[in-house]
Write a structure and sequence with these properties.
This protein has eleven helices and 16 strands. It is α+β, with helices and mostly antiparallel strands and about 400 residues long. The chain has two domains: about 290 residues, Aminopeptidase (3-Layer(aba) Sandwich); about 110 residues, Alpha-Beta Plaits, CATH 3.30.70.360. The strands form four sheets. It has a seven-stranded mixed beta sheet, with helices on one face. Strands 12-13-11-14 form a four-stranded antiparallel beta sheet. Strands 4-7-16 form a three-stranded antiparallel beta sheet.
Amino acid sequence: MTDTFDAELEQRLVRYAAIDSQSDMDRPGAPSTECQHAMLDLMVEELTAIGATDVVKQPYGTVTATIPGNRPGPTIGFLAHVDTAPQFNATGVKPRVIRGYNGGDITFPDAPDLVLSPKDFPYLAGKVGQDIITASGTTLLGADDKSGIAVIMTAARHLLANPDLPRPTIRVAFTPDEEIGRGVDARLPADLGADFAYTFDGGDLGEVVYETFSADFATVTVTGVSIHPGEATGKLVNAIHLASRIVGTLPQATLTPESTADREGFLHCVDMSGDAAQMTLRLILRDFELDGLAAKGDLLRQVCAAVAATEPRARVTVEIVPQYRNMRYWLEDNMAPVDLARAALAEIGIAPIETVIRGGTDGSRLTEMGVPCPNLFTGQQNVHGPLEYISVQDMARATELMLGIAARATG
């Protein structure tokens, strides 16, 4: 069946990836950026064109729609997000397709020194003969999560073109601002109206994720004493120096993303801005357990207090706000959607990979808000950077999985 989806999936992802839709945590509103409307409006247009019903662009930006069911069963939601990550350039994406990958190094036309090698990324070595989509070297690709959109739209189009294929009522949602932790508006669970849901926002073929990080976001503001440098003797307090000391004092060998793995959490400084008068540090705090997350917040406060104590004329404030929580806390009491995905995978001959995700999804928030929502694979790899790639054939298997879940849900 997958061959029937390959061309459509390729065309969709290439089309979607070329549309600028980067989110921005510094901007209010939903979506946070005007450019996301191009993707959201396209989703309205395409869902309407394939015959979906109840197509609505909600006031908070999310596009919802219905694929009418023809069998009794639970109402199932399928979600993906339209925004791309703000961590790397995502403007002017030029997707390209490498057909029949030969197993060697992949180079990039706009960045001659950049190399995607199966020696460095073993998953790529298993994709010989498949069709690989990358960007041109100076941007990310945006398969996170436009591959999820391509999968859902392809499966939705197939279901609507084949009205006898068994499925319960299916609800589709495409959200903005997932990458900045604002993808799930408080109104979405009611507007979605699903008994449970899935995000297609995962990596390796076969991934079924029902455990994510719990996450907090910290803002540290360092206010010094500003004065003309020519008159600064004994008076100037340079906020840059103090902010740098805070970053330098945090344990870099054991608690950063690059020094941790598996179930280890971290503190990660994602932004440092300002001037000698005032500096702002932004950090993300991650852990799989709430006590570990709280400990990281306590550590940050202790470090900031210690640095502030060395210079009483400065003022250092720390604000920590929740972002999302480990979906396991709720799914462990209701594994029905996970079991359904496992059974659908077995039916199409894919062994499930049940791993923790060192990140979060819209499903983390939806699950916390009462809609159980594990995360499923699309094949996306090396996301948030110029080496991002995806196999078209992985996306095709994800499309099969969505159709299989729909069919098995009818009993």
